[in-house]
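Hey, I'm writing a tutorial for new members on how sequence and structure tokens pair up, and I'd like a real worked example in the thread rather than a made-up one. If someone can provide the structure for the chain below, I'll link this post from the tutorial.
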Amino acid sequence: MTDPQTARLLPWTTPDGKTCIVVGDGEGQVSRVADGMEAVQLDMAEDLLGHAADMLGDAKATFPELHYLARQLTGSLRDVRRVAESRGARLPRRGAGYRMTGFLQVSTAAQSHAEAVRLAQSLVSARLAAGARIAGPVTSVFRREGECGTGAEWQLLLATRADRYDEVEAHLLAHHPWRKPEVTAVPMVAGSKEYLHWVETATTPE
């Protein structure tokens, strides 16, 4: 990636429900397929709204029919929301420099400072992250085995490229001592040219 490209939320998920993102100029095959699927989803939502209006105006509509309609509307609304999030994130906004950059901030947590440092060093050494910030200890409140608990954790924030997220996630899951560690990511919607160039360079495989 010579220049920052657009990160696009796709209108489908992986088989296990994970978000799919493509990074590019919006002209590739995946983007064209996504455009077509979004158009179909919006058309289906419009048809469903018309059907819903007719059914709600029918005094003879039964509870099972209305329940089925509610389920269909829920699914359609979920699709439309994803389309709106994807398109909204790619719209230009007021203020210089706003853009989706193709880079992510990945978050995880560790039980100790030493463990957080070890994870950070392993990711940076593997060129999966350009850098890491470690903060803590922070208090975590969580539910586990049906009960609420609290504990001290160290937060780890990693700077990386969107097209390397799958590798970052796989690395964390393989090297983290917890069985189900937090691994989440949010897009960097904007950033200085110099900083993003550093992230790109530092995460390019040798």
